Amino acid sequence: MSLHMLAARLHGVGDVRVEQVRCPESGAADVLLAVRAVSLCGSDRHYYLEGGIGGAEVASPLILGHEFSAQVADDGGLACGMAPGTLVAVEPARPCGRCEWCVQGHPNLCPHVRFAGSPPDQQGALAEYAVAPPACLFPLPAGVNAAQGALLEPLGVAIHALDLAAVRTMDTVLVLGAGAIGLLMLQVARLAGAAEVFVVDPVPERLAVAHALGAAATADTPAQVGDWTGARGVDVVLEATDAGGAAAEAAEAVRIGGRVILAGIPSTDTLVLRAATLRRKGLTLKVVRRMKHTYPRAIRMVEAGRVRLEPLITHRFPLARAAEAFACHAHRRDGVIRAVVQMPE
Q: Coil, strand or helix: which one is 63?
């Protein structure tokens, strides 16, 4: 294998360049991977448009991309039954495994986590090759392709959100935001036993997909929630937007004693909430931090046809056109839901 590879690196706001970089070294603890598909997500969009998320800022060229699938490219996975050529989904997080939160079973909350494609120096998967430890690799069954394998990561986020929501049989659910995460929440909520799942998003094309995936009703604002529920409000709101005001909309739309689950990353890093609404309704508010222990369930859902991923993949690009993929994704052009960068096998 060559010592160099092509990679898409973010040099600054709106500045993605495909260039030659050194190949990663797998070492004794990692497996070398030939990347096959990378899905661009909301956090990639924040890095591209704003140069950071919260206090995490891109200060030097960074390979983004953490939703990905790959083929095992060396013998590093043999001990775990993964021969070269095995197609795998890749967990992007490497928690420390030793801190209080890891030991308590919450590796997604690990403050020492190394997460692919994040500042200051954790390189991601928008490249020809990447490395990961065997514990982060999940072999894909024959019916799950590389692009679908990349979307198992956002599906994991949706599964984790529903775990936090504890949706009960015949609950009513509102999903705010019909991007990929919201559309996956819609499908998982239905699997969890929700009686009706309503979806709100200002983009008509996304609402059409939500309807096709089983939404009971859709609208461009939450104003119709009262009509849908007889003024009671829904039992659970799952928020998946980049709008700081969506949290307040969620609190207004949920019933007294209801649950609000926040998964979105607001562009302003600020949430707006009315304390009186939270207090008088006695609401439970939970925040989604990535996911935990979700890949096996996600794979089974897709393999069994219980969750559909293909309707979310609206745009595909080769690595050489990664800058175009980012522009499309970031500015939400042409009805994009998920833009996937795919490598030839």
A: strand
User: Tens-digit pLDDT profile for the chain (345 aa)?
Assistant: 668 999 999 999 999 999 999 999 887 889 999 999 999 999 999 999 999 988 889 999 999 999 999 999 998 888 888 999 999 999 999 999 999 999 999 999 999 999 999 999 999 999 999 999 999 999 999 999 999 999 999 999 999 999 999 999 999 999 999 999 999 999 999 999 999 999 999 999 999 999 999 999 999 999 999 999 999 999 999 999 999 899 999 999 999 999 999 999 988 888 889 999 999 999 999 999 999 999 999 999 999 999 999 999 999 999 999 999 999 999 998 999 999 999 987
Closest to 174 in 3D by CA, of 115, 211, 217:
217
Tell me which amino acid residue 124 is. Answer: G
Beta strands in the chain (DSSP E): 4-12, 15-22, 31-39, 52-53, 56-57, 62-63, 67-72, 87-90, 93-94, 114-115, 129-132, 137-139, 172-176, 196-200, 217-219, 234-239, 254-262, 284-287, 313-318, 338-342
